[in-house]
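Supplementary Text 2. Reproducibility record for the structural model of the 383-residue chain.

All settings were left at their defaults, and a single model was retained for analysis rather than an ensemble. We include the record here because the model underlies the residue-level annotations in Supplementary Table 4.
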Amino acid sequence: MLPFTYAVRNLFRSKSRLLQTIGGSALVVLLVMAAVAINSGMKQVLSASGSPRNVILLGAGSEESIQRSEIPETTPGIAGAAIPGISTRLGMRAVSSEIHYMSYLSLGDGRRAQAMFRGVTPEALRVHPEVRITDGRFPASGEVMAGHLAWRKLGVRENDLKPGSALVLDGQQLEISGIFAAPGTVLESEIWAPLGDLRTLAKRETLSCVVLRLDDPADFEEADLFAKQRLDLELSALRESDYYARLSAFFKPLRAMTWITAGLIAAGALFGGINTLYAAFASRIREMATLQAIGFGRRSLLLSLIQESTLACLTGALLASLLAVLLLDGRTVPFSIGSFSLEMGPDAAIAGIATGFLLGVLGALPPAIRCLRPSLHSALRMS
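Retained model, structure tokens:
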């Protein structure tokens, strides 16, 4: 076997080629790590947004989108009285009437951005216990409350959505009364407004949905039975966790596109690396033949060539990991219904190392085999 130091020394024969290999590997590994973080982040935020204890009553046929749903305003009172097992605190049942509305708003400087509004009453805090008001207070008429990450979703500065700032929705000026947090959920990217105000601004006479919080998730059957029995209300009952699971499935093609993009770029980098190594190893055919003549086997030489390539690619993977932590970790990415944070966790790290290793091995095999293919006497005669 050739000593490992032989492969290390050969890396520095051509510094320009070494830098190209490291740079190409770093780019591919960084892209793969970003793809893993995007897929994981989007999936986690959607799965964490729904609680199995919450039941959504929405219009039949609108199970894929609450925004399209319309139900009578009498539904909350009827459902709250008829469905057993609803959580009760201080004599108040956890029943939230809501309107979900997406529209463009205008900021004070004239910029416009699309935002997700949720018309709520104070009872919304009972069915969404993950929501915490971190600054200011719950909105009164003429006010709104912004999620902690709403500024990311809107593409504005964080100071643009601080308490006291003004927004304009459909010609109506609204003042931000507070900021709320709901870590790890899409709620943090929403803007909450009083139900009555949003009903007027959205020109609606119906609700989008009613959200109930149950003491026991098993009581969902009672809510489902209520929805099926009250044909006059035309309702459908969904677990909140199931609703967001459907949204996750809806965004699956988008997540797949990130993998396809990463795969195409990785394939291009792999073929480019193979071409570079073909040229590099072609000039070393006589060297390999000389080593065979003094007793080293072809398997040992093949392993040494793969070691050279893998070392360079793993160095690129290390550089990409450092860049991912410095540039991507914790960065917030907006999408249509919210935003999520990129996390360079164990999955991304393992994917990066595996990608660097595979680039090194697969990129070196074809040129190394070609380099060692000529017979010994033919290789020794090559200039």
